[in-house]
Design a protein that fits this description.
Glutamine Phosphoribosylpyrophosphate, subunit 1, domain 1; Rossmann fold; eight-stranded antiparallel beta sheet; 27 strands; binds fructose -6-phosphate; GlmS/AgaS_SIS; aminotransferase
Length: 613
């Protein structure tokens, strides 16, 4: 949720830290700050409420100079967004800390420190950690040992970076439940919440594991200590996606760039996973074949947009593979007494691979593996090396590349493609005509998506009908119901228009009461077996004076009229239609947000990677 960046370099670090914060701003953007140890051995600090630009402005007038520093962009959990609550937090004026996550037992620890005479400056849980480490440092005179002692007392999820004026060429980092990577440079090293933050200085990274503590220092380089206290070696990975991923290029917003990347990233997600006319199940990892043959049902768990992808997959798995499937949001699943029938495959979906609820759900499922019917856990994820992929038995990486816009777009459609690969791999009748047809359709999908993107102009025009509205209703049936849900989520998250989605057949059971001329109704209507039923539902809307916007195949006999606008979406195999119909709904929400002048890439109150519960 928050973004951390830290640098131990042979040059001034202010520019490196600031650039890192700009690249991490998608993770949180209510305040930002930086602390640098200057050549005189004093900690200097600048913090500002608001976006990184506000901090940058302060640094113009009060630059920080030094070769070691830590910085942070915040998404508030404990304490309102304000300068005083912004990180880094200091203790005894000698220690500075930045932290991402939540310290669950901070209240008793705070009382204990207050009992010792500590006066707190902020409302944050982080400041408690700062004081605990500073106190332990007095006893140990070793920053890494002081951090370890403190972490033993802390409950919760965190990633943190600490420096101390009395250990002037060291930074110590730790991760448990929140991501942290080490950027490996030449005679300089870095820490960050996301490799993207450091691409301007290195393309080599170590992805820390759960419970790791790391020390960067001049004389000992990078030392890692595992959760059990033993020294650990972790591999160095070269970053795979070029630095262009972190820039908007010709596009006005990351979201628009990412919408337009979908044909290419879907082609990349398919690459090497199809052979002739069938899916290579080995793409899911060693042992996938044996495991898949035994699967009798599927449990899918995810959050937000990823959950919507799971909802589409349920229709596919049941219809194409005949497998009973449940789909559930992770925050509910993790606290339920889940009944697991024999031979169930547990599947998590996540762009980031660090979503706290999804990770907790995986751990809950794994803790029950011996006594329940779970065969194994598969993660469909976009971030290599993420906690979710490391902790799952099998993983299929979507190849969406870094997604910077807070509203998920290309991660969703690549998840759908990955889920179709899974569906085909789980079918008992492998290699039949159905698989051949769908593999062909998958190969042609990037071209169909290019045509869907060509709807941009007409959709930009259509968006004017929404910009002044306060509510909108989205309707779909079958696999298009989750697409309607996703369309409504996109609209509300970036344009702040209240939007709801219903399976169209539910309309007359309540929501129809909302329909009037001020409530635009969007319907997704591909030419599938439910089309005639959907058309009747649409008549119900028209009869109540509702304004209807229908996305439909060319072949659908619907004629535009006064309160009915029809936009044609390129035709595709009916099973892949949810992927294609997602595009115009993404474009619609984007254009409405642009008209409303909202912050498209960083909508209010949200953050990209939800690493807190
Ligand atoms: C919405 C959105 C969120 C995420 C959700 C799960 O546009 O991005 O709803 O889908 O927070 O995140 P991941 O997929 O990273 O687990």
């Amino acid at each position: 949720m928050c973004g951390i960046v830290a640098a131990l370099a042979a040059r001034n670090v202010q520019g490196i830290l600031l650039e890192g914060l700009k690249r991490l701003e998608y993770r949180g953007y209510d305040s930002a700050g930086m602390a640098v140890l200057n050549e005189a051995g004093a900690l200097t600090r600048q913090r500002a409420k608001g976006k990184v630009a506000a901090l940058e402005e302060k640094l113009v007038h009060g630059a920080l100079t030094g070769r070691i520093g830590i910085a942070h962009t915040r998404w508030a959990t404990h304490g309102k967004p304000s300068e005083v609550n912004a990180h880094p937090h200091l203790a005894r004026e000698r220690l500075a800390i930045v932290h991402n996550g939540i310290i669950e037992n901070f209240e008793p620890l705070k009382r204990e420190l207050e009992g010792d005479g500590v006066v707190f400056e902020s409302e944050t849980d982080t400041e408690v950690v700062a004081h605990l480490i500073a106190r332990a440092f007095v006893e140990t005179d070793d920053l890494l040992a002081a951090v370890q002692t403190t972490l033993d007392r802390i409950d919760g999820a965190y990633a943190l970076a600490v420096m101390h004026a009395d250990a002037p060429r060291e930074i110590v980092g730790a991760r448990k439940g929140s991501p942290l990577v080490v950027g490996v440079g030449i005679d300089e090293n870095f820490l960050a919440s996301d490799a993207l933050a450091l691409l301007q200085v290195t393309d080599r990274f170590i992805y820390l594991q759960e419970g790791d503590v790391v020390r960067l220092s001049d004389n000992r380089g990078i030392e890692i200590v595992a959760a059990d206290g033993s020294p650990a070696e972790r591999p160095v990975h070269a970053f795979e996606h070029g630095d262009s991923a972190a820039s908007r290029g010709e596009y006005r917003h990351f979201m628009l760039k990412e919408i337009h990347e979908q044909p290419a990233v879907i082609a990349a997600t398919l690459e090497g996973r199809l052979s002739g006319s069938h899916v290579l199940e080995s793409s899911f990892g060693v042992g996938a074949r044996g495991l898949f043959e035994r699967v009798a049902q599927v449990h899918i768990v995810a959050c937000g947009t990823s959950y919507h992808a799971g909802m589409v997959a349920r229709y596919w798995l049941e219809k194409l593979a005949g497998l009973p499937t449940t789909v559930e949001v992770a925050s509910e699943y993790r606290y339920r007494e889940v009944v697991v029938p024999a031979d169930t495959l547990f599947v998590t979906l996540s762009q980031s691979g660090e979503t706290a609820d999804t990770l907790a759900a995986l751990r809950y499922a794994k803790s029950r593996a011996k006594t329940s019917g779970y065969l194994g856990a598969l993660a469909i994820c976009n971030v290599p090396g993420s906690s979710l992929t490391r902790e799952s038995d099998l993983a299929l990486m979507t190849q969406a590349g870094p997604e910077i816009g807070v509203a998920s777009t290309k991660a969703f459609t690549t998840q759908l493609v990955a889920l179709m690969l899974l569906t085909l791999s789980l079918r008992k009748s492998r290699g039949d005509e159905r698989e051949t047809t769908l593999v062909q359709a998958l190969r042609g999908l990037p071209t169909v998506l290019d045509s869907a993107l060509a709807m941009d102009g007409p959709i930009a025009e259509l968006s004017e009908a929404f910009a002044e509205k306060h509510h909108a209703l989205f309707l779909g049936r079958g696999t298009q119901f989750p697409i309607a849900l996703e369309g409504a989520l996109k609209l509300k998250e970036i344009s702040y228009i209240h939007a709801e989605a219903y399976p169209a057949g539910e309309l007359k059971h309540g929501p129809l009461a909302l329909v009037d001329a001020d409530m635009p109704v969007v319907a997704v209507a591909p030419n599938d077996e439910l089309l005639e039923k959907l058309k009747s539902n649409l008549q119900e809307v028209r009869a109540r004076g509702g304004e209807l916007f229908v996305f439909a195949d060319e072949g659908v006999a619907l004629t535009a009229a006064d309160n009915l606008r029809v936009l044609h979406v390129p035709a595709v195999d009916e099973f892949l239609a949810p992927i294609v119909y997602t595009i115009p709904l993404q474009l619609l929400s984007y254009h409405v947000a642009v008209l409303k002048g909202t912050d498209v890439d960083q909508p209010r109150n949200l953050a990209k990677s939800v690493t807190v519960e």
